[in-house]
């Protein structure tokens, strides 16, 4: 093996040559001691098809679009294990969760990104309003030097004073319409009232959660940016997850003339219980929330530029999943169905200016599991063998191809696989309420963009329309074989084994009770 140094994309690198194979390994830290920072921004429930940079011409997201124009855009990014918590586990561990665990805490034996960075001279921070991560025993603050939780999202039990006045008469009763099978009106109404208490003190746009998260992130950057140490910042925003509650000016961007009722900012369920005008109204509320997020995300991007951080800071922008808004007959994630509107996510990387990589699109498949290995590579740190995700820097440089397939699903409930043309779904809990039984094969449109809210039609405007399992039986069998082969190729980590054992104990205790 021979080793020599050369400049690659303006950065000195170590190149190892072994036989006829060439391995490019970026080592920004070891050679020249070049400073490198990384910021990861997660915006929950942000649909890829609701951003201008992904082809949507009616949505107003100028700031994210401007950021994307200077970045590498991944067109085929999918979340492997859904929803919120499994995605965060995947992001921090660099692993596939789908075969091994669902909505469960981080385990003691999980090897997670901030703990790897802990003794590498890198200051780390987590700033988030995703209250599910903050719940007791979840463990998502592990390893970070600084953590700031912004409270009050959704039904977070933050404001518990029963004397705080709220006014339900200002909202449609669809906000507490049961969304899940077996859910009662009283439970949903209590959750909605909790949210209203949490936001009862709001005076202006700056009180909205996305604004609070961005302002807190900017304050932290102002404290650490002058420090010579490298930093890693994870910004995890629960917006644009419901409640879709933006200021009026953002709702006015997406008028729905045929709806004249009170605001619906929370409700979900089967569209059989909803009028077309109500569905369109909810889609407008969602779009308005995205534009609100875009405004505040843009302020963060402006601050990074103003502080001179873009020269040596990589920014990774993505979502954990999308959101059904009428597609396949449901509003919100009320069924374990990983269809394209839910599993297909935006994934954008802006590399530091000094790397001289701009304006590139990559169509091959990537996912949340690739974030941790990529961050470690940017810092010049070896990726642990336990991580199953890929370092995407060689993919960006054209040295490697990303995956030819995308995987997504719900632990023990649904698995899916897709290539550039076909998507295939199989359901794992036969007989379970609201779970399907027969596998589904679609010829899907990965570039599908829905119309503006006022023109939306259920079942017509979705990327996967016609089930072709019977007509294309050979293709369905082929996709199922590939799916099972991939899932079976994934070996559990020590953390996965702990999670599986924990789940067994929980189930045993439930049966005894």
Helix content: 25-40%
Shape from CA axes?
globular
Count of helical segments?
A: 13
Q: Mean pLDDT, as a whole number?
A: 92
pLDDT < 50 stretches: 1-32
Q: Please outline the major beta sheet.
A: 9 strands, mixed
Distance between the termini: 62 Å
CA radius of gyration is: 23 Å
Structural class: alpha/beta
Number of strands: 19
Strand content: 15-25%
How would you characterize this protein structure?
- The model is unreliable at 1-32 (pLDDT under 50).
- The N and C termini lie far apart (62 Å).
- 28% of the residues lie in helices and 19% in strands.
- It has helices at 62-69, 84-93, 113-117, 131-134, 185-198, 209-224, 248-251, 276-306, 340-343, 371-378, 393-396, 473-488, 494-512, and strands at residues 2-8, 11-18, 21-25, 37-43, 72-78, 81-82, 122-128, 146-149, 230-237, 269-270, 313-318, 330-331, 344-345, 347-350, 360-367, 406-410, 414-418, 422-427, 440-443.
- The longest helix has 31 residues, at 276-306.
- It has 513 residues and is α/β, with parallel strands linked by helices.
């Amino acid at each position: 093996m021979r080793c020599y140094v050369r400049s690659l994309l303006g950065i000195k690198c170590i190149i190892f040559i072994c036989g006829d194979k060439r391995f490019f390994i970026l080592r920004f830290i070891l050679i020249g001691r070049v400073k490198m920072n990384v910021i990861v921004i997660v915006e929950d429930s942000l649909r890829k098809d609701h951003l201008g940079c992904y082809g949507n011409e009616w949505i107003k997201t100028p700031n994210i679009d401007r950021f994307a124009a200077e970045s590498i855009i991944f067109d085929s990014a999918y979340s492997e294990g859904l929803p919120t918590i499994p995605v965060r586990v995947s992001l921090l561990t660099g692993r596939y969760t789908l075969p091994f665990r669902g909505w469960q805490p981080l385990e003691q034996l999980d090897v997670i990104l901030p703990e790897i960075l802990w003794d590498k001279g890198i200051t780390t921070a987590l700033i988030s309003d995703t209250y599910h991560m903050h719940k007791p025993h979840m463990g998502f603050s592990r390893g970070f030097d600084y953590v700031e939780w912004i409270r009050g999202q959704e039904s977070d039990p933050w404001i518990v004073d029963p004397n705080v006045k709220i006014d339900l008469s200002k909202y449609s009763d669809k906000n507490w319409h049961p969304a899940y099978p077996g859910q009662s009106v009283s439970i949903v109404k209590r959750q909605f009232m909790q949210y209203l208490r949490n936001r009862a003190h709001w005076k202006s746009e700056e009180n909205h959660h996305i604004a609070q998260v961005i302002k807190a992130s900017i304050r932290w950057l102002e404290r650490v940016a002058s420090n010579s140490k490298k930093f890693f910042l994870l910004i995890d925003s629960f917006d644009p997850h419901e409640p879709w509650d933006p200021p009026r000016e953002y709702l006015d961007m997406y008028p729905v003339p045929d709806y004249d009722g009170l605001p619906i900012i929370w409700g979900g369920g089967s569209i059989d219980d909803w009028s077309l005008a109500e569905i369109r109204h909810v889609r407008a509320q969602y779009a308005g929330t995205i534009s609100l997020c875009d405004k505040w995300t843009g302020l963060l991007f402006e601050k990074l530029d103003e502080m001179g951080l873009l020269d040596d800071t990589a920014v990774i922008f993505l979502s954990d999943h999308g959101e059904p808004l009428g597609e396949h007959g449901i509003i919100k994630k009320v069924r374990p169905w990983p269809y394209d509107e839910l599993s297909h996510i935006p994934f954008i990387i802006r590399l530091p200016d000094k790397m001289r990589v701009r304006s590139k699109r990559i169509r091959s498949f990537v996912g949340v599991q690739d974030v941790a290995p990529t961050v470690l590579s940017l810092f010049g740190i070896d990726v642990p063998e336990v991580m199953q995700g890929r370092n995407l820097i060689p993919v960006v440089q054209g040295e490697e191809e990303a995956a030819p397939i995308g995987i997504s699903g719900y632990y023990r409930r649904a698995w899916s696989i897709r290539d550039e043309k076909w998507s295939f779904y199989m359901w794992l809990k036969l007989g379970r309420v609201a779970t399907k039984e027969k596998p589904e094969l679609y010829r899907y449109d990965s570039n599908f963009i829905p119309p503006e809210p006022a023109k939306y039609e259920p079942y017509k405007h979705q990327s996967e329309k016609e089930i072709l399992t019977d007509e294309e039986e050979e293709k369905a069998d082929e996709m199922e074989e590939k799916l099972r082969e991939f899932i079976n190729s994934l070996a559990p980590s020590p953390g996965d084994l702990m999670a599986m054992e924990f789940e067994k104990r929980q189930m045993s205790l439930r049966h005894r009770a």
